[in-house]
Specification:
The protein has helices at about 20-30, 35-50, 55-65, 90-110, 110-120; strands at about 35, 70-80, 80-90. By secondary structure, it is α+β, with helices and mostly antiparallel strands.
Length: about 120
């Protein structure tokens, strides 16, 4: 996953779009029950209210999170064919650690001396 950091934002909004954060929060709150892309999509659109997010955007995001190891899925068969039920592999705290490790790891790779210096000063 390519993380784009918006330092003007706070919390998860620094690395996630509003609909992506809502999608993850919905799955985290389901605690093991899992959710289909349709359920996530419905929740996100009910919650945001300001605009409509396409189902394709939700599916693409959920699948990207599976690829990154943030989410799991099981495939079920039902009316209309196969569908994925997404569940959390990483909880919110673990996801935040994943983001921090990714960012710091890349900084250490590209700017090791400067990153060590700054990390040593951060309290």
């Amino acid at each position: 996953m390519t993380l784009t950091i918006d330092t003007a934002s706070e919390g998860l909004a620094m690395v996630l779009k509003d609909y992506q954060e809502e999608a993850l929060r919905f799955i985290w709150e389901n605690k093991g029950h899992g959710a289909s892309s349709r359920e996530v999509w419905n929740h996100v659109n009910r919650t945001l209210k300001t605009r409509s997010i396409s189902r394709a955007s939700i599916i693409n995001f959920l699948n990207a999170m599976v690829d990154e190891g943030v989410l799991n899925y099981t495939e079920i068969t039902g009316k209309g064919g196969h569908r994925r039920i997404y569940s959390s592999k990483l909880n919110e705290a673990q996801f935040k650690q994943y983001v921090a490790e990714t960012v710091i790891g890349n900084l250490m790779r590209d700017f090791p001396v400067e990153t060590r210096e700054v990390v040593g000063r951060v309290k």
